[in-house]
Amino acid sequence: MAMVSTVDEPSMVFIARHDLKMSAGKLAVQCSHAAVSCTLNARKTHARLVERWRNAGARKICLRADDLATLQRLAGQAQAAGLVTYLVKDAGHTEVPPGTVTVLGIGPAPRRAIDALVSELKPY
Amino acid sequence: MGIRSFLHRITAPPLSGERIDEPCKMVCIVNQSLKMGKGKIAAQVGHGAVMATMKAGMEKPINLEQWFTTGQKKVCLKGRDAEHLLELEQQAKAAGVLTTLVHDAGHTQIPSGSLTVLTLGPEIEATLEEITGELKLL
User: Do B72 and A57 touch (CB under 8 A)?
Assistant: First the structure.
């Protein structure tokens, strides 16, 4: 895995629930929660990967999923593959009920490891 | 700076007993003249949030700590165009608020180097209100 990651552009991906019909601002805030939490968690376990990711422009992509079940399935698969994941639960101040899972963040991780998981998803 | 010292900086108690009692937030102002899609905006705001968090870890660890404690509040607002974002950046700097500008690498949707987002904070909510109070929610 370490050998592969040195030749592979690291990426972070946000998978957002399309069924919640969040506004642009809401979606951006939820993805940012995932971005900050994934980055800080990854710094503890994958410090070199985080540095390479940031130096290479900190690539981030936002994809859409149909429902909560898809997020949970992908979170399980990503964890099984040893990737950093973070499920964002909304505090529910606006738009959605408190505790609603809105976004799954994965990475930073080698691009091909992420592509292997999310290749069937469309850009948000 | 190594990972250990970074984590120490953001988790260690402040040395001089300095602290903030008011809640802190982060404000992300999006350049509306660029007509970015929702996913694009989310990625750009994400860039700004991570950059601002790292910057605060080094320059304003007390704000960062208080922001984490008060739920990492983030708000997304509409900015008119690049000039408007730069104007707000100057006001924020004058008020001592941490500012972060996000320029797009231009892989998709918009010209390379476009100023997409201005991130302010983490800072005391009332201080940010004075700068961004007039702006509409995205």
Answer: no
pLDDT tens for B90-99 read: 999 999 999 9
φ, ψ at A37 (rounded to 5°) = -65, -45
Strands B99-103 vs A122-123: parallel, antiparallel or unpaired: unpaired
Which of B34, B74, B103, B109 is most worth mutating to test chain A (most A CB atoms within 10 A of its CB)? Answer: B74
> Is B39 an 8 Å CB contact of chain A?
yes
Q: Is the pLDDT of residue B17 over 70?
A: no
Token readout for A88 is 């964002």
Q: How many angstroms away from the CA of A93 is the closest CA of chain B?
A: 11
For residue A78, what is the domain's CATH number?
3.40.1490.10
What does the pLDDT look like over B36-54, one tens digit per residue? 999 999 999 999 999 999 9
Please identify, in words, the CATH class of the domain defined by B3-10+23-132: alpha beta
Contacts of B137 in chain A (CB under 8 A): 25
Q: ipTM value of the model? A: 0.90
Look up the domain containing A106 and give its range: 2-123
pTM, entire model: 0.89
Instruction: Give the per-residue pLDDT at A1.
Output: 38
Contact of B98 with B60, CB cutoff 8 Å: yes
Number of domains in chain A: 1
Give residue limits of the domains in chain B: 3-10+23-132
